[in-house]
Predict the structure.
Amino acid sequence: MPHIVTSKCVDCRYTDCVEVCPVACFYPLDKQVVIDPDECIDCTACVAECPVEAIYEESDVPSKFQPDIAYNAEESRMLKAEGTQSIAEKEEALPNAEKRREELGY
């Protein structure tokens, strides 16, 4: 099963996860990243790298984040159709990422 980036990533957009992904299946949005479920090979490498624990295996996504499953699929497909490239190198987190991280309790 593919992995999913949940809305915990919103307003953080830490990209530690993208550096360890062997297939570069992360796509950037303005306020978060998403995983293309068709490209994810379920290696789990990204899970431990996320500072806000925003990434789950699809079958383990908590109920309040279930809408994020479709969101990742839809957004990644739209981005690819628009010609957006996946990201594989760490980028700067959003300016309020540390505040958001604290709000989430990490």
Summary: Helices lie at 16-20, 67-81, 97-104. Strands lie at 3-5, 26-28, 33-35, 55-57.
